[in-house]
Design a protein that fits this description.
Largest sheet: 6 strands, parallel
Strand content: 5-15%
Oligomer: single chain
Order of helices and strands: EHEHEEHEHHHEHEHEHHEHH
Strand order of the largest sheet: 4-5-6-7-8-9
Helix content: 25-40%
């Protein structure tokens, strides 16, 4: 399927502590004209400076910050600084590799299936995990400050690798605060495993989309039928398609999206639905 108008809101970029296939210049060279836009993610550093320091391109590049320990955790100031460099909304990922949920359920801070043998990662028990709700089940003060920064700077909120229970509270509170650009990060991921009924509940909020990505199939070995089933149950109008590519040996984002869409078509997802998830819904988030 032709994905030239797709906007991929989840692609990993180097330089990074993890080995990555692309830096911005090589990504542009490979992907310009192949997709319309790409959001650049890095678990360790803000990506807006990488974009600002590069050459102008027809490929839309979207910056982001990921609120791991390397950026000071739930750091509202980092959001402000990155947003000031961008003419369009940036993505703010809540903690990923440093989320308490992720570390509790993973042996390593950086899972071996992401990088292969030979990469040295800290054990999860050696890393301080970040939790976004308190013992009463309410958002922490720091998480509330992050929401305020997201709203003030017109950012896109992405839930990261926090637990589905934390994500549920986060989306509810963010929506209550008037944030209408929210991505529930790959809820099907084994270390999140958000129940479909909870996804349906959260999808009722304005501007909330469930992310379905190719890496869940290729890296995490989730059956394509299960991914398609979630799309059917949630509805294409409330989902986005992403590649989650950028790993050294994996396809380019456009190649991944082409393969992903063909697999989903075989599962009964129509081309119209695929374009809604790959083109229309990402544009809504970037408005």
């Amino acid at each position: 399927m032709d994905v030239k108008k797709f906007i991929d809101l989840h692609v990993h970029i180097g330089p990074e502590v993890l080995p990555r296939r692309f830096i911005v210049s090589s990504l542009i060279k490979k992907q310009e004209g192949k997709v319309r836009g790409i959001a650049l993610k890095n678990h360790f550093y803000p990506t807006m400076p990488l974009i600002k320091g590069g050459k102008k391109s027809e490929l839309i590049l979207i910056g982001s910050v990921t609120l791991n320990n390397y950026l000071g955790g739930l750091n509202a100031d980092a959001i402000y600084a990155s947003a000031q460099l961008s003419e369009r909304p940036i993505i703010v990922w809540f903690p990923t590799i440093n989320a308490e949920n992720f570390l509790r359920r993973s042996t390593y801070e950086i899972p071996l299936e992401w990088v292969g043998k030979g990469f040295k990662s800290r054990l999860s028990k050696e890393v301080k995990g970040i939790r976004i709700i308190d013992n009463q089940g309410k958002l922490t003060k720091e998480a509330k400050k992050v929401l305020a920064a997201i709203k003030e700077n017109n950012c896109i909120l992405a839930t990261g690798h926090v637990s589905w229970q934390e994500a549920q509270v986060l989306v509810r509170e963010a929506s209550k605060e008037g944030i209408k650009k929210i991505i529930v990060t790959h809820p099907i991921y084994q270390l999140i495993d958000m129940p479909v009924n909870v996804q349906k509940e959260l999808a009722e909020y304005e501007g909330v989309f469930m992310e379905q990505n190719y890496a869940m199939y290729t890296i995490d070995n989730i059956a394509i039928g299960k991914i398609a089933d979630q799309i059917k149950k949630i509805g294409a109008e409330k989902c986005i398609l992403t590649s989650d590519m950028g790993q050294v040996k994996n396809p380019t984002p456009s190649e991944a999206l082409e393969a992903f869409t063909e697999l989903l078509k075989q599962q009964g997802i129509s081309e119209k639905e695929l374009r809604i998830m790959g083109e229309e819904n990402p544009r809504k988030l970037l408005a």
